[in-house]
Amino acid sequence: MEGTPVTVTSVSEVGPGTVALELETPADFDAQPGQFVLLRATPDDEEISRHYTLSSPSVEDTFELTVGIDPDGDLSPWLADLEGGETVAIEGPFGRSTYDGDDDVVAVAGGPGVGAAVAIAEAAQEAGNDAVVIYQDDEPAHEARLEALEDAGATVTVLEADADAKLADAVATHREDGQVYVFGFDDFVTFVADTIERDGGDPDEALIENFG
């Protein structure tokens, strides 16, 4: 199996159909919130690889990936059933939508993008900066971490999947409150970029990670 072998330390449920996979950090692995890795595993002795964005604010000893479970998928159900101690492989980190601790942040997430958004918001708070999280999903994940962020002073808005008018309003309200990060599938990130432009902003200044 290609890539760097890493040990799975734990798997925990963090929302409906969503788990957090915690992995031991390999030597020389230096990643920032917002980046992603290519994970390789061999369920049923067949190598399968998928990209997952980091959902932990740091990678000092371990790091976390948030995995949405597709019941018909060939990898995510297998990952969700791990108990810890298993080995997978990673490549990376990849991606330029990173947070280095310098700015206030506005993290906008659709669906599985919440992991990266929460990680960036937590890293911002740890650096003494302000954070806004705008999250659209009918079945939210990482609710405990979102509540902790709010308790620590972050502005957190959670919206249902069909609440596009409220999403546009939240983006327009907060787009100048910090560096904007956007994580999600194509329709979502395109909607957010168009909203920024309609509101008089420059979507090219936002750091956007399109999940395809």
UniProtKB/TrEMBL annotation:
It comes from the Archaea. SUPFAM superfamilies: Ferredoxin reductase-like, C-terminal NADP-linked domain, Riboflavin synthase domain-like. InterPro entries: Cbr1-like_FAD-bd_dom, FAD-bd_FR_type, FNR_nucleotide-bd, MRET, Riboflavin_synthase-like_b-brl, TrpB-like_PALP_sf. Gene3D superfamilies: 3.40.50.1100, Translation factors. GO terms for molecular function: oxidoreductase activity. CDD domains: FNR_like. Residues 1-100 form the FAD-binding FR-type domain. PANTHER family: NADH OXIDOREDUCTASE HCR, PROTEIN RFBI. This is Oxidoreductase FAD-binding domain-containing protein. It comes from Natrinema limicola JCM 13563.
